[in-house]
Specification:
about 260 residues, 2 domains, globular, mainly alpha
């Protein structure tokens, strides 16, 4: 029932990851839904209150959860924490703690310091989530660089889609919001994603459902690359028909392309 509660949270709050997870085999869903529910709760925490201290406390709750799982302590009685503790190895708990730590940027109105700061934010949020999911599904250490390349591209695609909302909330999401700056970022992300795609077979088949959630990355990044003004206007989107077709590829062929 706790896994079902996680699935319901993801269905309501993160529909793209929900669809990707429902395309995975049932054993993988039992792993992915708790991880995605944790990620959703952490992503929501900075926006749950206008007072930064309260938002910090909410994030600290999830950092404490990760620390306790890492120490092998009995899980808290919580609909997300209990199933998460069932599927997460203690040695992988720091990956989730790093996600929550990176989300502190969302609380405040400061811009990213520089490109390295932005890059590390994407790697900590998207990279750690997808790597933790792949690890929980049995991915070996040698697959990490490939998975992080794919995750970085996917993370930038998701971030670009969130730009209008972030700006509406008073944040400064992009280091260079000019069309040429957006194009440059989309190029970087697409290059890393393409690099990962060429090596994705290093990820063993049981772990590949961790990559399913990146199925819209290429069309989103290409739109941002070719028509960067679509980022600010919130017009980055894939039609439902095209989206369904793209999700069939990893499900039936085992690869994102």
């Amino acid at each position: 029932m706790s896994v079902q509660a996680c699935a319901e949270l993801v269905h309501k709050g993160d529909p793209d990851r929900f669809r990707a997870t429902m395309a995975a085999p049932p054993p993988a869903r039992r792993v992915l839904f708790p991880l995605y529910a944790y990620n959703l709760e952490v992503a929501r925490a900075p926006w749950a209150a206008s007072e930064p201290m309260i938002a910090e406390m909410r994030l600290q709750f999830w950092r404490d959860v990760a620390e306790e799982i890492g120490q092998g302590k009995p899980p808290r009685a919580h609909e997300v924490v209990e199933p998460l503790a069932d599927i997460l190895r203690p040695e992988d708990a720091p990956l989730l703690d790093a996600i929550a730590a990176a989300r502190r940027w969302d609380i405040y109105r400061d811009a990213f310091e520089d490109e390295a700061h932005f890059d590390s934010y994407i790697d900590a949020t998207s990279g750690n989530l997808i790597w933790a999911a792949a690890r929980a599904l049995g991915a070996p250490a040698e697959a990490e660089p490939v998975i992080r390349d794919l995750a970085w591209g996917a993370g930038v695609a998701n971030f670009l889609r969130a730009v209008p909302e972030l700006e509406a909330r008073g944040r400064v999401p992009l280091l260079d919001g000019r069309p040429e700056g957006v194009t440059r970022l989309a190029n970087r992300a697409l290059n890393r994603f393409e690099k990962g795609l060429t090596q994705q077979t290093v990820v063993p088949k049981p772990a590949r459902p961790a990559l399913y959630a990146a199925w819209l990355t290429t069309p989103i990044l290409r739109q941002a690359q070719k028509a960067p003004t679509r980022v600010a206007s919130g017009a980055l989107a894939v039609s439902p028909f095209s989206s369904r077709l793209r999700l069939l590829r990893p499900v039936f062929l085992g690869t994102l392309r």
